[in-house]
Amino acid sequence: MTVRAPAKVNLHLGVGPRRADGYHEVITALQAVSLYDELTVSTPPGAPGEARGPEEASAAAEGTPAVAATVEIAGEGTAAPGGAGAADDVSVVPTDADNLAVRAALLVAEAAGIRGARIHLALAKGIPVAAGMAGGSADAAAALVACDALWGAGLSAGTLARLAARLGSDVPFPLTGGTALGLGRGERLSPVASAGEYHWVFALADGGLSTPAVYREFDRIDDGRTEPTPADAVLAALTTADPAQLGAALVNDLQAPAIRLRPALGDVLAAGRGHGALGALVSGSGPTCAFLARDAEHGALLAAGLEASGLARAVRRATAPAAGATIVTAPPPSAIPPPAARS
Ligand SMILES: C[C@](O)(CO)[C@H](O)COP(=O)(O)OP(=O)(O)OC[C@H]1O[C@@H](n2ccc(N)nc2=O)[C@H](O)[C@@H]1O
Ligand SMILES: Nc1ncnc2c1ncn2[C@@H]1O[C@H](COP(=O)(O)OP(=O)(O)OP(=O)(O)O)[C@@H](O)[C@H]1O
């Protein structure tokens, strides 16, 4: 069962003061972009099938974890940039129970009353890690959809969205993709009208930025605000299909703190503007920088200019809005192993 889930860019990220629970109230307009992670969930050979009889079910119940998962990662995040021992390196994707896709599988099993499932998760990462593009969140969304389908759990879209919000503020969005307004800590979504197709160029950076660290840096400067800035200008621009209007309306309140933590990002943004980007901003909590191009042709020129500048680790082009988590290959029903024990 293979599911593809998209990265995101925040077209508007208005951040309010820190709440009592440690999160910040935000008003954000999110757009899914055509950079994807692909998650393949399979049942390892020799894994037990369904415990059909009551005796088997109760045997599975005793001390059996809901899910035992192995994880394999390819693509972005495969190698530890900080080398061996860099356990606190935010650019390293965990292969244990901390992996957001494993945590998502566990939530689906619990919600469906499944115990004793064994799965193998193969993640092909096309979304840079700890880059402000919600790669881990995309993997979690993909795992919710894949495990729901693999186990025939039949969870509703609303239930999957609730499970997603428990995993992270950014996780509900890649379930639906497209363009959406996010309120609360960013997890309360409503769809937004977006006309036309937008052409983005992303300058990837070496190493990641920690999202909590960027929010903490935001807190260091108390500008006296009591609520996040509204997204009206971006929402209006999205209805015009005019990239120049959208480019002029882009806002990210985490940009200044991200640049304070990583001053070189200012040079990357300036380089993109120098190549005629209609809009330039740090993506989410960074350090990826996002540039809006006039059209596909301008996107290619902008990407070439950024590559030649030597300021980016890599440059990627994408179109938006992109679709949310989608099953790309499902095994024939006869090849799907029966679910593990259900309580
Ligand atoms: C920067 C964004 O990517 C913009 O969409 C998101 O706000 C981050 O969402 P996320 O990575 O899913 O973050 P979560 O896993 O929910 O939270 C991680 C940490 O980020 C900080 N955090 C996150 C979201 C939010 N609205 N306020 C926060 O202060 C908190 O320190 C929190 O402990
Ligand atoms: N499947 C996963 N893929 C990537 N990172 C993961 C995954 N599971 C857990 N993580 C951890 O999550 C952290 C954030 O990674 P992620 O790529 O989601 O960052 P991000 O794009 O900056 O997130 P956001 O934009 O939601 O703030 C990493 O430090 C990594 O250790």
From TrEMBL:
Residues 236-306 form the GHMP kinase C-terminal domain. Signal peptide: none annotated. Pfam families: GHMP_kinases_C, GHMP_kinases_N. One of its GO terms (biological process) is isopentenyl diphosphate biosynthetic process, methylerythritol 4-phosphate pathway. GO terms for molecular function: 4-(cytidine 5'-diphospho)-2-C-methyl-D-erythritol kinase activity; ATP binding. Residues 99-178 form the GHMP kinase N-terminal domain. The keyword Transmembrane does not apply. It comes from the Bacteria. Residues 43-64 are annotated as: Disordered. Keywords: ATP-binding, Isoprene biosynthesis, Kinase, Nucleotide-binding, Transferase. The keyword DNA repair does not apply. Residues 48-64 have a biased composition (Low complexity). ATP binds at residues 128-138. InterPro entries: GHMP_kinase_C_dom, GHMP_kinase_C_sf, GHMP_kinase_N_dom, IspE, Ribosomal_Su5_D2-typ_SF, Ribsml_uS5_D2-typ_fold_subgr. The active site is at 8, 170. Its EC number is 2.7.1.148. Pathway: Isoprenoid biosynthesis; isopentenyl diphosphate biosynthesis via DXP pathway; isopentenyl diphosphate from 1-deoxy-D-xylulose 5-phosphate: step 3/6. It catalyses: 4-CDP-2-C-methyl-D-erythritol + ATP = 4-CDP-2-C-methyl-D-erythritol 2-phosphate + ADP + H(+). Catalyzes the phosphorylation of the position 2 hydroxy group of 4-diphosphocytidyl-2C-methyl-D-erythritol. Belongs to the GHMP kinase family. IspE subfamily. This is 4-diphosphocytidyl-2-C-methyl-D-erythritol kinase. It comes from Pseudofrankia asymbiotica. The gene is ispE.
